[in-house]
Amino acid sequence: MTDALTAHHLTKRYGRRTALTDCTLEIPAGRVVGLVGPNGAGKSTLLQLACGLLDPTAGRIEVLGKRPVSGVKEVGFVAQDTPVYPGLTVAEHLRLGARLNPSWDRALADRRIDQVGLDPAQKAGKLSGGQRAQLALTVAAAKRPELLLLDEPVAALDPLARRTFLQGLMELTADQGISVIMSSHLVADLERVCDYLIVLVASEVRVAGDVDDLLASHHRLAGRRRDSTGLAVLEKSVAVIEESHTDVQSTLVVRSTAPIDDPSWQVDRLDLEDVVLAYLSGRPR
């Protein structure tokens, strides 16, 4: 199966400012991918390169096995500000989408508008933030894309609107079987909907993998104070991601391909947010 996205030494510069540097990754198809990282890590730039809105300065990117081209039916994109046309009604957005997209699924669009309770006669400029996000998602999904790119789609929404949006996203992915790449700072939301995670820091992929595998292989170790260079736990199967020390205790976040069998450590499992934070604040690779 062709990957949803591949990038090799991908770089994007704006004059002297570099937005993405030497980024290499492979994103499998058929997954709901969470893309997380701090501001300035290159998440938005990567997604705009993926949908053909930007051209790379150097390196190579392929989406569904091809060079990205803006506006193709195979890729749907919802930008960070969930853009809609304030002067157009909901119904006019759907009619415009139908004219611009030969693969437009009118039944899907009408069904989603009804499910999320949007008034077809309401102008988009009068909608709430959550309603605008639902409209933007509907327009992107009704193209029947193979890949849906979402750039911080719920960042400005209240908790109820976020939950409603994410429920709609899960229903769409279940019904259509599409690939999704969604950037977000809200790791709890990603944990609800994503089955694959990428942590991007300063354009470097710190970790990428199946969410269940990441949760199973990462642990927090707590024990007596010791220097990490002399830890018996540092075997080939164990990588230290983050460490902190007090006068009496050392605490490590590690990734291990084998069980941690050392009685001098208290071993605890991590949730996805713990894993993400460890890579954001831990050692560069």
UniProtKB/TrEMBL annotation:
Q: Per UniProt, which keywords does this protein have?
A: ATP-binding, Nucleotide-binding, Transport
| UniProt KW Nucleotide-binding keyword | yes
| Highest taxon of source | Bacteria
Domain ABC transporter intervals: 5-227
Which PROSITE patterns does the entry mention?
A: ABC_TRANSPORTER_2
GO molecular function of the protein, one example? ATP binding
UniProt cross-references to InterPro entries, sorted A to Z: AAA+_ATPase, ABC_transporter-like_ATP-bd, ABC_Transporter_VariousFunc, P-loop_NTPase
List the Pfam families hit by this protein, alphabetically.
ABC_tran
List, alphabetically, the Gene3D superfamilies matched: P-loop containing nucleotide triphosphate hydrolases
Name of this protein: ABC-2 type transport system ATP-binding protein
